[in-house]
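name: query_chain
kind: protein
chains: 1
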Amino acid sequence: MTTAALLAATRERLADAPMQGLGVAKVSRWRAARIVRAGEAWHLGVLLLTRGGVLATGEVLRAAEEVRRGYAAESARARADRRAQARRGGFGEGEVVHVGWAELDDDAVESGPLVTVDGVPMVRWSAGGIMPLEAYLDEQIELRYPGY
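structure:
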C-alpha cells in the first residue's frame, strides 16, 4: 500500500473519532498575541492527520486562562503565556491545540517523519526509531482512539 492509501484508510477508520484543534500564532499592534484556529486533525503521535492532508506534529498545549503566578523557570512562564494565547484566540478552556505543525507530502519518498524504504511506507517516530507506517498508525489509533 502507498502512504497516501494508508492515510486515506486511516481517515475512513477515524471518520467519527474526535479531532483536536490546529492553531496558528497571530500578532497584531492592536491586540495581544493569540493563537487562532486553523483547522482540526487527528493526533497520531508524530503525525497529525487532517481530512485532506498530513502534518508533522509541533507544539501541543491546552488552552487556559491567563493567571498571575510566580514561576521558578522562564520556560514555565513562556508555556503559560502560550496556553493563554490559545484561550485568547478562541479555543475553549482545556482544549488541546497543536501549533507549529508542518505540512507533509504523502507522495514524496521522504517528507518529514514519512519515508519510503524499499517501497514500504515508514515513519520516523524518534531520532533512531523507524517502523512501518501501517503498524504505527494501528498502534497510535489503539492508544489514542480505542474502539476505532
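note: The helical segments are 3-13, 74-88, 133-144.
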